[in-house]
Structures are given as structure tokens and as C-alpha cells.
Amino acid sequence: MNMDLSTSLAKKSAQKKTAEGEPPTAENQAPQAQAKPAEMGAAQAPSPEVTSRPRWDEVSVSQITPKMRADDLHASFGKSEVIKGISLPIAEKLVTAIIGPSGCGKSTFIRCLNRMHEVVSGATAKGRVFLDKQDIYARDVDPVRVRGRVGMVFQKPNPFPTMSIRDNVLAGLRLNGIRPKDPDGQVERALRQVALWDEVKDRLAMAGTGLSGGQQQRLCIARALALEPEVLLMDEPCSALDPIATARVEELIHELREQYTIVIVTHNMQQAARVANFTAFFYLGQLIEYNRTQVIFTRPKEQRTEDYITGRFG
Amino acid sequence: MNLGSATYVRRHLTDRVVRSLCVLGTIVALVPLFSVLWYVLVRGIGGINLDFFTELPKPVGESGGGMGNAVLGTLKLVGLAGLFGIPPGVLAGIYLAEFGHSKFARAVRFAADVMSGVPSITVGLFVYSLVVVTTKHFSALAGGFALAILMLPMVTRTTEELLKLVPESLREAALGLGVPKWRATLRIMLRTALPGIAVGIMLSVARVAGETAPLLFTAFNNRFWSTGVNEPTASLSVNIYTNAVSPYEDWHRQAWAAALVLLMTVLVLNVSARFLVRTRVRAR
After folding, report:
1. How large is the angle between the packed helices B249-283 and B191-209, nearest 10 degrees?
2. What are phi and psi of A191, to 5 degrees?
3. Beta-carbon separation of B173 and A158 below 8 A
4. pTM above threshold 0.90
5. Tens digit of each residue's pLDDT (9 = 90 or more) over A269-286
6. Which of B167, B177, B183 comes nearest A223 by C-beta?
């Protein structure tokens, strides 16, 4: 499925709709009035908020306008291969969730998307990953610059302990040798984006590590956003947070997808259902199924997906 | 019903005996420590006055005078040692922490461990043949160099160990922000470990400040003020030795005073280093 996508994906989906008459496209574009109620009825899933972009929830996988695209990606730690040839388009300005049992390669996969995988000694990656039209694994690509455009939020909140809240937000800029033009404004904007401003505006000079776990995680998201990345990768961003903090981060994801392409790895299937437009199910280093979130959670095509979602394994 | 038992009584007794032995051992260990402190304090306090820090030693027969030149000399020697020893030590520590898996790094680590056990007089001999013989004179430079060699393994290993204590997640955070590795290492890893490294450096300074053996034939001694770094230089530790073996009562008094000053310097460095660590832990 993904292989024949690769050539046409680079084009805009609009062009694509007219240019090709692929079966899935035709099926999906057909009577909308018919498709929608049926789906909602079956889903009972929390209906995703209406966004400014029309009918994103009716776009099928084959119609994705990709911001990034993995193409036959392999990744290994030493001799053991943990990603065994995954091809996956990532929709622009939408949320893509990656689910799957522990050890299936979810985290490794998104770490490949900004070349963080190779930071661990012994870790290697092979294949291609496109950011817009550029292969980030091409020989002349500087991984450091890739990471500037594809930001990352980690599982455990990791604000810099030697820096204040304010300096943490500006850290990405300063560490890259950029002198912020309007530091106060940038700090406020980034902190407002993550809905942390009101909570911390009176103690910006205090250590970032003095905040609660959920606040720290939002601070880390603000730190990543201050660099204005195009893509935001989130590696189980809520696994160390309590339900209330989790809810705040999820709200945040809803807001951020207006501006950013987001990929989120999660263990929590409800979370994927709540925040993601598309969901990919990984198993043992392979992509088993990739579709709209509603489809994955209501009528998966693969038995293994269904087994995992219904809790039969994993 | 009888709840007591012979086993219980026996255990209780064993506990008492072993515990008393431990307390006794502790006292035995502490007695020399405190008697040294006490004795140096009692004998040295009489010789401490402003003159001690500002005046030159008086010729034999005249009373009074001080050890200003030795106080300054020790500062100068320790300063030079820091200048020579700290930068390469910290850099080597960074190397070991960041690239510590290569064979070469393992060899460096092993060499540092061996070096920290080398008798200090050997280092003095080495510097004597390397610097003093080639330049044909004793100098503060040579003395500082010898002390730097003693500091080097300590600084290297503390830097390495403290860098390794910084959580890897911070490095990932920095790299994830598109920061080059070298800058992440310096501005995040080293910066986070810095208070601890500073403590390690203070302790190594305290250790070399009292060294005598490596100075005996490198910095040598000087009865007068030494200007610059290229001539023989007095130090408190060497002066304690030369004054103590002299037959003059007045010189002995000066030696005790010098010992007290040195002891206090080392003590203050040690205590403040420990205090730094403690406030840091509390701040977390």
C-alpha cells in the first residue's frame, strides 16, 4: 500500500484527487453524506474537534498530504534490527499516533524521524525519510539541522536543571547561538501556547525543575516550540504524568495541530483515539496497519490490530 | 509463661560487645586526628600575628619576623599548579566521560588511577630531571608543574565521574533542540556538573597545598621575596621542614605557626567544599 503511494505523495492531495482514480480515493470521496453518519454511529469514539481544515477526518491514508514520509526505513541497535522496513507518510498539520506493544519499535521509529536514533552508540538507521522533499538521511544532510526543524518532546520531562523557567524556554535559541530579538515576548508566546503562562508568569526566574511533572512537560513542549519547528515528535509525553496533567497536554495537542505536524507515540490507546487523526499500529518492528484513527479503532482490517486494541495481547 | 530465652540474652550481649568495639575503634582513630589539630593549634597560635604574613624571616639571632614570602610562595605555587593542572584535567575528564569506551580512553583512565598512587617525591624527582636540570635552576614554575602533575589525575577522574552523573536525558534534550554535540556537552553537561567539579578541584588544591616532597628540589626555598615565577620560591610546607630541623627556638615557633596556617587553609578548603556539596543537595 505504501509503496505505490511514494511516487504520488509528494504532490498536493488536490492534484492527486483529480489526477488519479485510485480505488481508496474513489471510495472515500463518494457520497459523504452516507459515510459520515455510519461512521459516527459505529464509532462512539470521542468525536475529534472540528478544525478549520475541511473534512480532514474524511481523508483516507492514500490522500495524505505528507509533511514527512518514511520509505523502507530500517533501524538497528548493534546487530538487532528493531525497525524492519517501515514506510509511512505523515500528514501535514495533523496528528499521527503510533501505537503498539512495548518493544515494537515505536520510539525508535520517531527517533529516526529527527535522527536522534543514531545518538545512542551502536544505533544505526538505513533507508529514507523525507522531510518535505528532502531525504534527511542523504549524505550531505546535517542531523543537527534536521533536529532544528523536527522538534522532540521526551517521555520524561527534562528541563535543564541549571536554568530558570525563562531560560529553559529560550534554551533552544541560545544554545544554537541565536540571540532572541524579543526574549520576553518569545517566552510569553511559547508559554501561552502551552497554557503555562498564567501558572508561571510570576516566577519565571525560578528553576524549571521546581515545577510539577505536568508543568515541566509543558515547559519542555514550550522549549521545543520556541524554535518554531515544523514537526513535533512526542515520545509518550504523558506516560510520567497524572490524568489531569495528561488531559492538559492532550488539549494542547489539539491546539497545536493547527500549526504543527505532530507525531505522538503512546501506550495509551484512549489517548490515541482522543488526539490523533491517523493511527499506525506497529508490531515487532513492522507497520501492521495505518489508517484514520476511527477506522483503526472501530473496524481494523488486520486481526493483530484488533487483538491489540481489544486487549488480547500487548 | 516465660518469654525470655537464653538465645535472646546471648544476642543482646554479642550486640553490646561488638558495638563497644566499634566505638572504641572510632575513638582510637579520632585521637591522633584531634591531637594533631590540638597540638598544632596550641604550639602555632603564639606565632600567628600580622608580621607572620607580611614580614620576611629575620636572620638567626634576631627575634620576630615572619613568613610572608612563604605564604605568598605557597599561593603562587598552588596558583601555577591550578593553571597547569586544571584545564588539561577537566578536558581529559570530558574526553573520558564522552568517549570513554575506546581502548585509548581505557588506557588513559588506568594511567590516571596509577598516577594518583605515585609517591609525590617521585613526581618531584621527575620534574627535577625534566625542568630543573634543563633550565639549570630551581623555580616556582618547576614547583607548580610538579604539583600540577599530582593534581591532574584527581581533577580528571572527578570531572569524569561527575559528568557521568548528569542524566543522559539532558543531553538528549539539548540534541533534540538541534544543538551540536560539542555545545550540548559544554553548555549543558559540563554546566550541570560544574558545582561538583568545582568541589573536586577544591579538594585537589587542598591536597597539593600541603605537599612538601615534590617542592624540595623543584621550587626549593628562598629566604627572600621572590619576584616572578622563574626563581626559587619559598613555601609554607618546605619552610616547616627547614625550620623544624634547625636548632633555633625562634625558628621552631615560626614552623608551628606555618603548620597552623597550612592546616587551617586545608581545613577551610575541605569544609567549604563539603558545605558546597551539601547546599547543592538541599537546593534540589
Report:
1. 160
2. -70, -30
3. yes
4. no
5. 999 999 999 999 999 999
6. B177
